Amino acid sequence: MATKVVMEALSPTMEEGRVVEWKKNEGDPIATGDVLAEVETDKAVMELVARAGGTLLKRVVPEGTTVPVSQLVAVIGDKGEDISALVGGGAGNGGPAAQTTKPVADTTAQRTSMPPAPPAAAATESTAPAPRPAPPPGVSPAPSRPGASPTAAAAPGDGDRVKASPLARKIAAERGLDLHGVAGSGPAGRIIQRDLEGVAARPAPGPAARAPQVPAVQPVPAGEPFRDVPLTQIRKTIARRLSQSIGPIPTFYLTTEIDMERVAEARDALNARGEGRISFNDITIKATALALRQHPACNAWWQDDHIRYWAEVHISMAVAIEDGLITPVIRHADQKSLRQISAEAKDLAGRARERRLKPEEYTGGTFSISNLGMLDIDEFTAVINPPEAGILAVGRLAEKAVVEDGTVAVRRRMRITMSCDHRVIDGATGAEFLKTLKAMLENPLALVW
Amino acid sequence: MPTLTYRDALNQALREEMTRDDRVFLMGEEVGVYQGAYKVSRGLLEEFGPMRVVDTPITELGFAGVGVGAAMVGLRPIVEFMTWNFALLAVDQLVNSAAKMRYMSGGQVGVPAVFRGPGGAALQLAAQHSQAFESWYAHIPGLKVVMPATPADAKGLLKSAIRDDDPVIFIEGEMLYNVKGEVPEGEHLIPIGRADVKREGGDVTLICHSKTVTVALKAAEQLAGDGVHAEVVDLRTIRPLDTETVLASVGKTHRCVVVEEGWSFAGVGAQVVDVIQRDAFDELDAPVIRVTGADVPMPYNKQLEKAAKADPAKVIAAVNRVLYRG
To answer: What are the strands, taking DSSP E only, across A351-406?
Structure first.
């Protein structure tokens, strides 16, 4: 029984791939997992591996050919097997994508077999005061019920009473969580189990939580890596109005100038140890990650109907490559030492330029940094990398004359500009984050505090 | 293991118990010469003779009373009702005599009788012949209520019911008699009062009994295709209720839907929900929802009858609600 080898989606956004090089010849024995070919995707050169064993009977496309995902590229089977039917009619069809809709079809069939308005009003009963018709499967009863939408959380007039399922209360008690301020996604804003995923025992993002507190730089607490917060009405209005004004991502820019004297001294001292060189970029990554820990409101993803606040900090680092740009991610940058960050940044940038990054190495960032300082750019604005809500554009380190204590002094200064998605980050929110970042860089001992 | 119909599994249990204990006898309408309205007693008259397989007149109150009396003086009667709808006439004997005798005699006289027959709706038998009465009998202290859903459970539970020293209400299903399944040979006993997890899952518990076990399993199958893993708990015995199994499952899944064939008001599911809300309160992430028969006399019209019954689509809709799925 011959097996078709199709072009696989090797990255989340891949729609087509180019066969760079075949690693096996027709007639070669193949074991499951063998690398059949190198394929260039939109992001990187990746390996196409065999999903079945046998003999490579046919290479359907020559090297250098670009084919869409799920198109036939080769056939594996038993030696001497007749595959003319497969190779003749199979191209472009029969890929895995062809058969993904079955569950949906089942649901539809079942829905249409239901009487249009079942007189089964009493057939399902709940604790609700009035019986209501059983909704047909797949049809949510929520829209017809006032107050049942997730955004009805914390409805006015409820005072201090928190609506939560018994299980949610039990979990909160066990983990020491305060349910006040947790947005419930159940009917009438009821807090249910899933709303507590990601709410570890830490303050919710908000003005009160943004005060620079000692716990802010403790390791990420156990639990989920992020917390989804449904949009409040004001965030919805901000999102709608500002998108109308300026485009799909209503961006604004905040610039500040940082005195880098002490960072430069610290860096020189570290590098003088002769254990590898730390760059200003490495230090900026570390400081940004730590500042984000204190300002979770800036470490977030816009998700259309909610905002995902991340407890983990993963910094996307813009790297110029031939003909383009890619953003490898330094994961948990807030928890890594400068040396680790430096080594990782070098490795990622190097492999990015060789186009050898794996998809998981350039996706999943929570905040981006773009640095053009080494190209002598004083300052610039960077374009937000969605769904992230912020990106920092870092300019060059330059000696400047500054007025200090009434006299003019020469100081090394650096200008940074943060682009903010206004649907997530407000002006003051972004400014406070930059203030923390600036304070850290001007007093680099804060990096090890 | 041989595959038998539910009907033949019951027949096997009757034959084995009548062979094992000559105090056991069967009585009811058409159980002898006609071999049972649903052929559950096929071959028994020929094998055990007319003293132990007794055809009665159409007198439910009368022969139920004879059964109670026979049990009081040491026999082990099995009283077949052609359906539990007809047994309404015998309720006085079941409630006032069978259920009360041990209590009112100060423990001196028990009633080791089994009252059995099909309950609930079949197809288009209309309002008077399509009723699920298990909650009536489960309401009465002194009665045990057993409702097997599979052939193996039917055999194992009927044998246990016949050996029980107290009256057992044993409710079968007309639509179940042809269901096939593997049935252990010989001494296969299932204790009364023990529920059975018919399918394991971690996302939601479906509690059901008798015919709704099939409904719940079908719903669970469809939900699995959608990534939802339902645990199906078959109560098997309504009273005494196996609260331990129910609570263990709800403690695992945190969400529960209770399915039954009968009417909602004061139904079996209401009792189950009572136990859950009291003893598993802190485990619940959503209110328990019940799927029941519609609160109307069963319509004769085929489409209306279908709409009035609990079915997999209604169970799935309820599951979506307890899971807060759109």
So the answer is: 367-371, 390-404
Chain A touched by B313 (CB under 8 Å):
yes
**Does B316 sit within 8 Å of A166, measured CB to CB?**
no
Query: Tell me: the pLDDT tens digits for A144-178?
Result: 333 333 333 334 444 567 889 999 998 888 888 88
Q: How many CB atoms lie within 10 A of CB B243?
A: 17
CA triplet B232, B237, B238: central angle to 5 degrees? Answer: 95
Instruction: Tell me if A122 sits within 8 A of B294, measured CB to CB.
Output: yes
Work out the widest C-alpha separation in chain A, in whole angstroms.
Answer: 90
B318 and B291 Cβ atoms separated by less than 8 Å: yes
Global pTM value: 0.52
Asked if the Cβ–Cβ distance from B317 to A125 is below 8 Å, we say: no
Given B16, B17, B29, B60, the catalytic residue: B60
- Give A3-108's CATH code, choosing from 2.60.40.1740, 2.60.40.10, 2.40.50.200, 2.40.50.100: 2.40.50.100
pLDDT band at B189 (very low <50, low <70, confident <90, very high): very high
Q: Which residues touch A330 (CB under 8 Å, ≥6 apart)?
A: A285, A289, A314, A315, A317, A336, A341, A344, A345, A348
| Subunit contact A115:B254, Cβ cutoff 8 A | no
Burial class (CB in 10 A: 0-12, 13-18, 19+), A171: buried
Phi, psi of A418 (to 5 degrees): -105, 130
Sketch the domain layout of chain A as residue ranges: 3-108, 152-202, 233-447
Could you tell me which of A254, A279, A252, A250 has the C-alpha nearest to residue A266? A279
> Count of CB atoms within 10 A of residue A58's CB?
19
| Least confident range of A353-357, A397-401, B227-231 | A353-357
What residues in A contact B306, CB-CB < 8 Å?
A: 115
At A239-289, the pLDDT tens digits run: 877 777 777 888 999 999 999 999 999 899 888 888 788 899 999 999 999
Q: How many other β-carbons are positioned within 10 Å of the β-carbon of residue A208?
A: 9
> Exposure string (b/e) for A346-380, b if CB count within 10 Å is 16 or more?
eebbebbeebebebebbbebbbbbbbbbeeeeebb
Domain spanning A233-447: which superfamily?
Chloramphenicol acetyltransferase-like domain (3.30.559.10)
Length, in residues, of chain B = 326
Bridge partners, A157 (sequence order): none
Domain at B196-322: CATH architecture: 3-Layer(aba) Sandwich (3.40)
Q: Model ipTM?
A: 0.76
What are the tens digits of pLDDT across the range B29-63?
A: 999 999 999 999 999 999 999 999 999 999 999 99
Q: Which positions of A are annotated as active-site residues?
A: 422
Residues of chain B with Cβ-Cβ distance to A124 below 8 Å are: 289-292, 314, 317-318
Burial A279-313 (b: 16+ CB within 10 A, else e): bbbbbbbbbbbbbbbbbbbbbbbbeeebbbbbbbb
The CA distance from A357 to A353, in Å, is 9
